Structure formats: C-alpha cells, structure tokens
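S.,

Sequence below, as promised.
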Amino acid sequence: SGTDLFYYPIMFGKILNPDKKIINLVTCKEELGSGTPFAAEARYYSNYNQFGEAVDKGEIIPGADKLETIFFEARSPEGKILNHEEKIRRLINQNPDNPIVVNLVYGSKSGISDNIKIIDKVNAPNVIWSIDMCQLRHQRDIIRMMLHKNAMVMITGSKFYQAPPFCAALLVPKVIYNKILNTDNWDSVSGFGNVLSKFDLPTSLRNKV
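The prediction came back faster than expected:
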C-alpha cells in the first residue's frame, strides 16, 4: 500500500549509512493515511503484518531505532497552505553528517503541491528525495523530471482509477538503485522483513534479503 512505501526510503538510507542516525522529514502530515505516520517513524502501523502474523502496533521495527522523524503540517490553523522550504533547507544545513530523507507531496487529495524546485536549490549528497505523487494526477514528463533529479517517486492506487486494493509503486532512480545493488549492508535492515517481503523488491535485489 502507499503506507508501506514510506518504509523504503528509510530502508535505503539505513542500507547506505548503517551506522548513522537518519533524519526523516515528512510534509503534509494531516493529509497522509492513518497508518503512514507510524510507517514514517519505522513503526508497525497495524496489529498484523502482511504475512498474517501479530505485531505490536506502534512498536519500532527491530534495528530501526536510529531514526528521527520530523513532521510538517500541510496547513495553518486558518487553513492556509504552508511552505516549509526554508525550514527544510535549514535542517539539511544543520545536519551535514546525517543521512536525510525528504518526503514531499506533489498533488494531494486537496490539491497541495510542495515546491519541488527545492531539489535544485539543495546541493547535499546526504539527502534522499522522495516525492509522493499520490494517485498520479500528473503528466509523465513530471515523473521523468523527478527521476532525472534523482528523486524517488511514490505512486498509490485509487478507487477512482479502479485500481485494486493495496496497489502502489515506488520508482527509484538508477543512481540510487545502483548504490543499493552494490552494497552488502542489507543485514542492517533485516527487521523490515517483518513488514515487507522480498517479493516486494525487484528480482535483482531479492538475493540481498
């Protein structure tokens, strides 16, 4: 599901930086699904995993404790859409030695689109960009542009498009994919095997799990 997709950027950050604390920045908190804030903190978001096994909802996934998640509200109390670019850039500048995941929303249910131009303004190799394109209300050129900027793209299914339940995909730029493919740090994310199956990964990565 779309909630499950929030685990992947955290996993990738941990694979590439197994001994460092990850800072996970998440925008539009109140427009996310009910389980997504749990996933963004690397916690179980349900009482059962996809294998039918009981888990403790809200508990941190084993091995994912080196994580700090910071949420940003989509709107002010008056309903005005908020721009968090300055705060995000400040946090990136203050944490040059930490891997940072920045989750932006581009096309939420109420029409919110974060300013994705921030990607061009930040020159920081420790940042992983993840763009939630929701139910894909965009032209293909936008997706190509994001991938060209080395940003991952999250797409979730929608009843409006007659998609099946729990339908979602994560598009990963080749630069990030090759780094993940060529590292042997997968033991650092073994705890995520409690929520994700190796069959959720491309065939070329399944032997890593």
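Helices lie at 2-5, 7-16, 36-40, 85-94, 118-121, 140-148, 174-181.

Coffee later?
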